[in-house]
Amino acid sequence: MKAFQRLSLSLVMTASLLAPGLAGTTAAAGGSPGSAAVSYSVLLKINQYYVLYTTPDVPYFDTQQRLMLPLRAVSELIGSKVGYDSASKKATVAWEGQTVEVTLNSKRVAYNGKETKLDTVPVLKNGQLFVPVRALLNGLHIKSTFRDYLLTMTDERFYKSSKLLSELEASGGISPSGSPASTAEPSAIRPRAVTLTPPKPGTETSTVTIRSENVSGYDLPAGAENLQPIFVWDNGKWAFADAARARPPVTASNTYKLSFPVGQANGSLKYVLAVGGMIGERHADSD
Length: 287
Prior knowledge:
Elements: E1 5-6, E2 14-18, E3 38-41, E4 44-46, E5 49-54, E6 60-61, E7 67-70, H1 71-78, E8 81-85, E9 90-95, E10 98-103, E11 108-111, E12 114-117, E13 123-125, E14 128-132, H2 133-140, E15 143-147, E16 150-154, H3 158-161, H4 163-171, E17 183-184, E18 189-197, E19 205-214, E20 225-233, E21 237-240, E22 255-263, E23 269-279
Parallel strand pairs: 1-21, 4-16
Antiparallel strand pairs: 2-22, 3-18, 4-5, 5-23, 6-7, 7-14, 8-9, 9-10, 10-11, 11-12, 13-14, 15-16, 17-23, 18-19, 19-22, 20-21, 20-23
């Protein structure tokens, strides 16, 4: 596995405000120059990190409304080890002394060698194995919550087992001044959807547009909104978006968009994560 490395990244940002409740769209993955933009709903959060995009495809709900996760991507993000045997079509996940074994297109699952059944099956999608989230939660003993179509996996051990999360935590985050952010209400901003627009022909800059909602319950003045996108490339390098970007005022329950140009000098985007909070403390007159 490649080591992750932080880059210094300066991005131009554009912002637009949307009416509350604007629905997102979903589409198949793409990315070649001149191809159409694709959008995905944000369905997964690992500790405080929203998972906006994983390559080559993202978490989704199957026909039985079961949340399916890309096994290798999620395993890397939480720091578990995964192996796949093509002959038996079995995948094994190991984390913190627990093991999960699943079989492609089979409801059979084994937790630490003890077999039971799932209510839906692992599948291949765009060459990637997707597994029911319940298999990982039950088998690896991971705490979770599910609210408003967002699955949050929570465990402090992720910060040690995951190389990427460990580096993100060690960085301390960023603020407009470039120092660690003084962020109150760490869940004030919720990313709802992400749109990836491939480079135009003859260019090497794609655009990542994030649609988010102010879920704090009160209005945020200009400068308080603090969505922090994190871009991870397939060469192991990563970067925060520009800390000095403009931060628009966002009224309670309003939805807004931020667009970030992202170069391809480091290869293709592997992950897009984000932390959604606010800068400063809540004032008494905002109650």
